[in-house]
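Hi, here's the filled form for the chain we discussed.

Project: internal
Contact: R.S.
Residues: 219
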Amino acid sequence: MSNKPSKVFLVEDHPLFRQGLAILIGRHPEFRICGEAEGAAEALAAMTELKPDAAIIDLSLKSGSGIELIQHMKTRLPQTAVVVLSMHDERHHAERSIRAGALGYVMKSESPTAVIEALRKVLAGKPYLSEQMRAVAVERFLNGAAPATLPQDVLSNRELEVFALLGRGYETRRVAETLGLNIKTVQTFCAKIKDKLHLANASELAREAVRWQESGWAI
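And the returned structure, exactly as it came back:
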């Protein structure tokens, strides 16, 4: 067994939080921070070159989607174990993150020791979820998954990004500019979202998007 420290890459758009995370991890000689990034594209490019053993990724990034970054890593960096560290409630986002390719999920409200434990687990090839979330997963397995009724359960990743931006009050043109899409494509996504969420018109879509954003569930 090698005594070489595991290389860890941080993807987090808040510099102060990222610095604190680096200090926390740096206290453990079994780990070494090999790089940091604020956005998805920047992170993917750096990690492709550095090939870290593990990455800690926030879902809300300065640019791009944490979920899409994890999906790209699943193809391009399958050897890198991913831990999601997020402010978003694990009941709504842990399963989605795991499906995308993450192996662990830690909420920012948890103890700092949870981050270290999660890193150790995923580097050993084992999943990490809180005790509460493990109980939920077991219950779902035994009873069968509940019908999907929440946006994060029925929308695709891109549709969820559009929905989240609508919830922030963005108009269609601004959504298109933010995501690098044309307006017609965004309008198509909006139509699909309305259909999947059973919303009658644009006004209902806007209200539901704002309500979801304010609930704290949005990515």
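Let me know if anything looks off before we file it.
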